[in-house]
Amino acid sequence: MNGSLIVMNKGQLIHAIKVHIERGDKSKEKAEQHYISAGQYLKTLKANHDGSWAEWEKLLKIKIGIGKSRASELMQIADGSKTTTEIRIAGNKRLKEHRKKISPFRNGEKRKKKSSSKKPTHDDILEVIENDSMDEEQSPTENWQRSMATAAGDILARPALWKKMYPGWEKFEVTSDMVTLAKQATQAWGKLTKQLQMRLK
Length: 201
Fold this sequence. Notes:
The chain is an all-alpha fold. Helices cover about 65% and strands about 0% of the residues.
């Protein structure tokens, strides 16, 4: 996105937002970039919106086809305060909370509420992966390819996001646990890369 955004009218902004959301939903490698662009355009559209909050919600629903929560998430991705993976984790937690309200008891015990402000854990991420959304119009192979590309894209986007969220992060103190985790992640992706290369046609 560049300076030309300033002179875009409302119709052009809406069109750009819809295009980037659609491409982000379908992209196997550049979903994060498209969501960032969509969020930036949304922030501009919102800043220029003179109507009420109800009119803003109506605009989102009718003209763009999304709700206020999705719009908020896209704007958070755009300003670097959230990543696509974190948004998916939050969405998964909301779904679990909704299910608790419908059926609050399981195995005879009331389940405890988890703090929504808690940072995502390794188990949270695994749960999101296990419950990864499946596109029924795509084959299992296509869904797997999309899931793998999304995971890789999130890792590739991290340095740029850290630069926005934590200026000067390259000079922050590093612990031995962090190095161990980085090594384990590198080894895991290295092993996956070898497996993929062996199966490459």
